[in-house]
Specification:
The protein contains 12 helices and 12 strands. The protein is of the alpha+beta class. It has 2 domains: 165 residues, no CATH class; 166 residues, no CATH class.
């Protein structure tokens, strides 16, 4: 009977391909939009992941996410260092400053100022130069993506550009800065070039303010309970303290709850689900109507409702597997082709499993009307003219 069900399914090529197209569109749109959403939300906290050495981030209690910088007094660094359970605590400056390019244009950059002595918080991977070169005068390290795009240098006598290289000089907020290294970092939500320098130099680049300490990076002593240490730091200093995972959650929750990103992608994903269900359901129902006489003949020959039900479910699952495979394959190809662009795209296995579950639901809903029609079918229909 399974072979009969398969031959019935592929017998009408137009409806067969119509069902597959509906399921392909649904799985493609669901996977693509969800992958972009996941990639975009990951970028909101990539800066935290890149600075992976500290156990705890200490900041102003009003900070809502990583880019919501509210500087505190430099004396707070000493207060954090005096808390029992803290192995070391280092300052981190984070701000947006304008860099002037050789063609006279200005580009806003994310400036990260690292502790002058230890350089804690530096880039996770150096492509050219060394992190220790930041101790040289007027030195900066630029991320590779920013160096190749927004900070690229014009080639004299040509309309082309070349990536920023070690040895190039630029201005950061009217201060001379020499590139001593190129690093690789994860792309951020703001998609601005990331520039590393020392803390003292960053505070020199920045406009003069009474408070310039953005964050305090804390490493706990071995065996210290991190949540308990966070509470102790908060009680002793009056600042907010989060573990790395806690700060990531704080940032993620802010973008999820206070921006229109989730609802926009949810609408697109829901649209793919509804349209896929409508196309596949309508086409599958018409396919069943065209084959009612065949189902009636099978009933007349003694086929039970349970057997006909298995045939319909088999047909539904076959087109579901094919449509899911093509749709996910197209989404993966789209992600591969866009990997070198600014588009955020990430496809974890959980997303593939979720898309598969959605396609199963679509197939079940599409088959439901057909199942009801066949269950109510009278075998005598085969003998009618």
């Amino acid at each position: 009977m399974n072979i009969v069900a398969f031959k019935m399914l592929v017998g009408d090529r137009a409806k067969y391909f119509g069902i597959i197209m509906g399921l392909t569109f649904a799985s493609l749109l669901i996977t693509q939009q969800a992958a972009i959403f996941i990639g975009l939300m990951e970028r909101t906290y990539n800066a935290i992941n890149d600075i992976g050495l500290p156990d705890i981030w200490v900041m102003d209690p009003k900070v809502q996410f990583i880019d919501d910088v509210k500087p505190v007094q430099d004396t707070k660094l000493l207060a954090v260092r005096g808390v029992q359970g803290v192995e070391w605590a280092m300052p981190l400056y984070k701000g947006l400053l304008k860099a002037r390019l050789d063609n006279g244009n200005f580009q806003t950059c994310i400036i990260l100022g690292l502790d002058d002595t230890t350089l804690v918080g530096g880039p996770p991977k150096m492509l050219d130069g060394k992190l220790a070169d930041l101790r040289r005068a007027d030195s900066i390290i630029v991320d590779s993506n920013g160096a190749a795009t927004k900070l690229a240098r014009d080639i004299p006598g040509s309309k082309k550009t070349r990536p920023l290289q070690v040895g190039d000089v630029m201005e950061v907020n009217d201060h001379r800065a020499t590139v001593v290294g190129i690093c690789e970092v994860a792309r951020t939500f703001q998609s601005q070039p990331v520039v590393y320098t020392t803390y003292s130099r960053a505070t020199t680049f920045a406009p003069h303010e009474r408070r310039l300490l953005s964050f305090v990076l804390v490493k706990a002593k071995p065996g210290t309970d991190l949540p308990a240490l966070c509470k102790t730091i908060e009680a002793k200093t009056g600042l907010a303290a989060y573990t790395q995972a806690g700060f990531i959650k704080l940032t993620y929750d802010y973008y999820f709850q206070h921006t229109g990103i989730p609802i926009n992608f949810f609408i697109a994903i829901a649209l793919g689900f509804v349209v896929g269900t409508a196309i596949a359901g309508q086409t599958f129902y018409n396919f069943t109507l065209d084959n009612l006489r065949h189902f009636g003949a099978l009933k007349a020959m003694g086929a039970s409702n349970a057997m006909l039900l298995r045939m319909i479910l088999l047909q539904s699952m076959l087109v579901g597997i094919i449509g899911y495979g093509i749709g996910v394959g197209l989404a993966s190809t789209f992600g591969l082709l866009s990997s070198k662009t600014e588009l955020a795209f990430k496809m974890p296995w959980q997303l593939l499993a979720g898309t598969g579950a959605a396609v199963v639901v679509i197939c079940m809903l599409s088959a439901l009307l057909s199942i009801i029609k066949v269950m109510r079918l009278e075998p005598a229909i085969v003998f009618k003219g």
